[in-house]
Amino acid sequence: MVTVHGANISPFVRKVRVFLAEKNIAYTLQPVNPFTAGPEYRKLSPLGRIPAFQDDKTTLADSSVICAYVERTNPQPALYPTEAVTYARALWFEEYGDGGLAPIFGGEIFRQRVVMPLFFKQQGDEAMAQKAIAEKLPPLFDYLEGQIGDNAFLVGNHLSIGDIGVATQFVNLRHAGVTPDAQRWPQLSRYLASIHGRPSFKAVIEEEEAGLKKAK
Ligand SMILES: N[C@@H](CCC(=O)N[C@@H](CS)C(=O)NCC(=O)O)C(=O)O
Questions:
Q1: Which of 83, 130, 164, 195, by CA, is between 20 and 30 Å from 206?
Q2: Residue 63 lies in a domain
Q3: Domain range spanning residue 139?
Q4: Residue 202: inside a domain, yes or no?
Q5: CA gyration radius for the chain?
């Protein structure tokens, strides 16, 4: 039996949940708030972050580690390309999401507009969010627009960890009321609608939207 530990609005928890859903692997989501979790949780996740993962063989932390492990234990359908260049490109897009998009989408926008008011009952820094939206998002969107072109996926002809790693970050942006302008970024908008429309993403997005609505 597989258990994922974490909160559903985390982009990294979502990355693992979508990955498991695409692999058709059943799991239980064990709720963990990383900001209030006690020292016991560090036995699962030594840095105290979410997600953590358990199956009958091991315990793991970090969404990238978890996904890479699940690919080895459950190779089909393949979510990492096998050829060297496309494999590296898929890893690059995963990192673009984790290291490039997350600090801005998460820290500067989602945290200010959603986490602070809903979960900390404090006013977020709306000026920070506005500045990030105006100045930091356009170059990130421009890059993705150029990389996607008229393709269905970022790498090759199949969904990969690169798509999951990028698209999961856009869910947090969407929760914060921001979506790329379809006039200015038509390919990115089309691409996101398609990836977020997959059953794997759709299910978690609907669950999260219901939870956020309830928390308001
Ligand atoms: N590289 C990690 C990042 C995970 C991460 O930063 N999770 C956040 C929530 S979205 C967290 O646990 N933050 C609490 C903390 O850093 O103490 C992964 O991919 O799993």
A1: 130
A2: yes
A3: 84-215
A4: yes
A5: 17
Considering the entire predicted model, what is its pTM? 0.98
> CB of 5 within 8 A of CB of 52?
yes
| Bridge partners, residue 5, by sequence | 30, 52
CB of 12 closer than 6 A to ligand 1? yes
Tokens (6 digits) for 139: 């170059």
74-89 burial string, b = 16+ CB within 10 Å, else e? beeeebbbeeeebbeb
Question: Same domain for 112 and 202?
Answer: yes
Residue 15, ligand 1, Cβ within 6 A = no
- What are 2's strand-pairing partners? 27
Q: Ligand 1 mean position to 14 CA, how many Å?
A: 12
Q: Based on the domain organization, do 100 and 175 belong to the same domain?
A: yes
pLDDT of residue 216: 84
Mean pLDDT split into 10-residue runs, the chain, 216 residues? 97 98 98 95 97 98 98 98 98 98 98 96 97 98 98 97 99 98 98 98 98 92
Domain identity same for 66 and 114: no
Distance CA 51, CA 4 (A): 7
**Helices marked H in the chain:** 11-22, 63-73, 84-95, 102, 126-131, 137-148, 161-175, 186-196, 199-215
Which atom of ligand 1 sits closest to the CA of residue 48?
17
Asked if 134 and 205 sit in the same domain, the reply is yes
The label of the residue with tokens 């459950």 reads 74
Structure confidence at residue 105 (pLDDT) = 98
Residue 74 confidence (pLDDT): 98
